[in-house]
Amino acid sequence: MKKNSIIFVGAIVIIILAVILINNNNNSIQVGGISDESQEPEVEEKETEMTDQDKDESFKVISNTDRLNRMPQYEEEGKVCKEIAESLERGDCFQKLHDNYLLLSGRTAKNNFYFPYVRGGVWNHILHVPIDENDQLGEMQKEDYFDQYEDKLSTTGNKYQRGLDRIRDFWYVFSALIPRENREELKQLYWTDSGEAYVFALGRLEYNVDEYYMVIPQNFMRYEGVEKFTMLHEYAHMLTMNLNEVDDMEELPDGATENEVWEKGTGHCSTYNTRNRCVKEDSYLYKFYEQFWKDYEDEWMKIDWNSETAYKDFFHKYEERFFNSYQGTSPVEDIADSLAFFFITNSADVEKSPEMKYKKLQFFYQFEEFVELRTAILENLYDLSVKDREFY
Q1: Is position 87 within any domain?
Q2: Among 3, 19, 233, 338, which is least packed by CB within 10 angstroms?
């Protein structure tokens, strides 16, 4: 098992959920963002078939339970939204509905500057579950760390059942919210021992760079309403860092220094270098970068990420541009958080707000595909809640 290596981009660290590249024997993960696996994960054996997507007694999804019997009113108000034909107006109708009944909020903390996954550490994959051609979860496949892993949070002594249950919890909600045609590249879900870090992650498979896997940490206890924003943030990475958006450059050998990573990337990239990936000129990310990051690009590139105060000082200088202190760690994280906020914020609130952080949300309204996707996600959230008679 190799130690995590911090990746420097733009002369300094860029973090895809904090840009860390974690080399895990066969896999590497960039926390919360796009990473590559060095080869196809080895599978020790298969067991525990998981094809039933219906909720049962062991299902641990916890939503905003309807203790006040508001579901009938919620359902009736949602029927009005479904009658609206225009996409933006329809999406805003569902957004207002969810804002009144659900936990529909993003992260807004601006006092957290300690991201443990930035400092390094070791992540260990325990198991993963593939997503099959029918959009169902397949059979569990063990990873190298499976036999060593002890689930200290299990109440049954079974080392893997809680992981399988949490993967199913996550997939039940995620697959219901995100239209299938907009996530077909996601092929695997990993249960990973991330130590004390509570961080979801999105990875890209080296043996098929068009496909992705999602990492779910071992300390994920259950789905709750607040997890929607985390799901949308990770999904936003898939939308903004796929191969339609970035070009892969030649990989550097293991052990390359941060300066070598940056210098090689800079020499091959005329737009914006996210480590060894060059952002395409017509990509969402490059347009976002040009509009919102160019004026303080040099300051951001000079941040000493080993310092306890350098990023904190940078953030406080430009605090009004961000919803939270994590968002300012890189353009990659900024666009992911901005897109997640775009999905859950009413367009009227965006339009009337002069702050830069809302201008970033307004950026996405120029793309009809994002407007349509936002409406679909918000409507799917309504449909799932009504179907299960629970507020997700």
Answers
A1: no
A2: 3
How far apart CA 240 and CA 246 sit, in angstroms, is: 8
Dihedral sign (CA 12, 330, 116, 156): negative
Say how many CA atoms lie within 13 Å of 145 toward its Cβ.
Answer: 21
Q: Which of 282, 275, 301 is nearest to 240 (CA)?
A: 282
Q: What whole-number distance in Å separates Cα of residue 126 and Cα of residue 216?
A: 10
Considering only CA atoms, which of 273, 291, 271 is closest in space to residue 282? 271
| Cα 61 from Cα 176, distance rounded (Å) | 13
Domain for residue 81, yes or no?
Answer: no
Mean pLDDT in each 10-residue stretch from start to end of the chain (392 residues)?
A: 28 31 34 37 33 39 68 97 98 97 88 64 88 96 93 84 93 96 96 87 82 93 83 96 81 47 58 82 96 94 88 96 95 97 97 97 98 98 95 89
Taking the model in full, what pTM does it have? Answer: 0.81
Helices of type H across the chain:
71-82, 87-101, 161-177, 227-240, 258-268, 284-292, 297-301, 310-317, 331-344, 347-352, 356-362, 368-388
Spatial distance between the Cα atoms of 176 and 382, rounded to a whole number of angstroms = 10
Would residue 313 count as lying in a domain? yes
For 133, 140, 252, the CA distances from 38, given in Å and listed in that order, are 24, 21, 12
In a domain, 289, yes or no: yes
Partnered with residue 187 across adjacent β-strands are none
Are 348 and 32 contacting, i.e. CB atoms less than 8 angstroms apart? no
What 3-state class would DSSP assign to 298? helix
* Sequential DSSP letters for 236-281: HHHHHSSTTTEEE-PPPPTT--HHHHHHHHHHH-SS-EETTEEEPT
CA–CA dist 215, 329 (Å, integer): 21
The structure tokens listed for 122 are 């070791």
Side-chain-side CA neighbours of 258 within 13 Å: the count stands at 19
Tell me how far apart the alpha carbons of residues 242 and 223 are, in angstroms, rounded to a whole number. Answer: 27
Supply the range of the domain harboring residue 197: 5-59+104-388
Count of the separate structural domains present in the chain: 1
